[in-house]
Amino acid sequence: MLRQTRFASRHFSQGILAQRRMASTKTIREALEEVIPKKQAQLAALKARHSQSVLGDVKVEHVIGGMRGLKAMLWDASVLDPLEGIRFHGLSIPDCQKQLTAAPGGKEIIAESMLWLLLTGQVPTEAETRQLSRELAEKGDLPKHVIDLIDSLPTTLHPMTQLGMGVAALNHDSKFAAAYEEGIKKSEYWTHTLDDCINLIARLPALAARIYRNVYKPGQEIPAINKDIDLVGNYVNMLGFGANHDLTEYLRLYIAIHGDHEGGNASAHTAHLVGSTLADPYLSYSAALYALAGPLHGLANQEVLRWQLDMQKELGNNITHEKIKESLWKTLKSGRVVPGYGHGVLRNPDPRFVALQEFCLTRPDLLADPVIQLVKQTSEVAPDVLKEHGKTKNPYPNVDAASGCVLYHYGLTEFKYYTVIFGVSRALGALTQLVWARALGLPLERPKSLSLEAIEKLVEGQ
Ligand code: CMX
């Protein structure tokens, strides 16, 4: 049955797209062809009327403090409110869970539905989501040169390093790079970029699964892509768990809600910066993956699990809040950060953490798992400890505090691999913005840098 199509975006809906689409089945390209001219006109009007209007002050703390809070990027697909957390085109995670299509027989949002929402600002019909699933499945096979490259890498090479290399090597077939070489018009950039982005998202599961199999389960045959199931179903199947494993529903949720987190986070921003040079989407996203591989960003989910397992080993049975408190202080006093806590923008518990915790609450097997219990207990103790420690601006759990322990429960125990899953997900948002940057003709990013002496001179006497 076709689901009623709604326009989701607060930004999109401000008069521009505030009309209901007929419940016809469009391709994602056709949906974009409809919305792009309206956004282009909106941007042109803003530029004409307000190019010189002021959005805020640039303070010294912005320049020396990682640009936190500096309003300096255009990014439409998601907004991160410090207290409320992420919204995708105006929809919160619970809204998405209610409105976006699930897999047949499943409950969780599928990646295709989230991708459609991010790209177009619209909630797709079920038929549109299924059509996109099929398109991605049809485009999902890896070219031989990428298979050969990945198979030739040492299994001791970190899975994220391998993922970035595989993604970069996919640029061999870049439609954008080929078209640019032939001399296309600027107005056509987005359409070739879209081709690359769809192809890349389609191929990420096969690439990520191949890395997993080579490193952790060598010698087993990887199943072929099933054209009748969704992207994540195929991913889990290729990982070797079977498409109907409980892990599939978890990863559907995980991949949908990790898809985008505003534009300024390190991975998305890297894709945007590199993409602004007109590097093709494969090169842009490869660079983004290496930002995601940093321990302060995506690698934190691997760090959290390692840290919680060490805590479990150290504390033994009968873990109490008091014992967890002591362990947290031990981490802090050794000069380390508590992984999975704090955030550059959020000032409340991360709603992605809450969504993953709720996933656990409805499943008795997960609730009974001692590691999942420990994560829950830690989240009850850590905020007070971090407040007392007094450094972090946000003492609450972020998404990484919960994500790894469920993977571990379901048998995906190789935590060096966890950031790869994050990398499969973040492509949804980062590549969406690449399409839009080209559609809107955004220029090369080139902020002004200043020396310490230049800053001192500028602020003297203020
Ligand atoms: N444990 C201990 N100290 C922490 C802390 C934590 N979890 N989070 C922040 N702090 C410290 C910072 O190191 C900083 O100390 P210094 O002043 O000595 O440098 C101080 O508190 C202020 O930091 P902040 O402004 O609150 O946080 P930042 O914006 O600088 O950093 C983040 C944000 C996520 C890197 C940081 O909270 C952190 O390191 N957390 C642990 C790693 C983690 O969970 N990362 C995952 C992020 C999620 C995502 O990528 O989406």
From TrEMBL:
InterPro entries: Citrate_synth-like_lrg_a-sub, Citrate_synth-like_sm_a-sub, Citrate_synthase, Citrate_synthase_AS, Citrate_synthase_sf. Keywords: Mitochondrion, Transferase, Transit peptide. The keyword Transferase applies. GO terms for biological process: carbohydrate metabolic process; tricarboxylic acid cycle. Its main location: mitochondrion. It holds the Pfam family Citrate_synt. It is found in: Mitochondrion. One of its GO terms (cellular component) is mitochondrial matrix. GO terms for molecular function: acyltransferase activity, acyl groups converted into alkyl on transfer. Belongs to the citrate synthase family. This is Citrate synthase. It comes from Antrodiella citrinella.
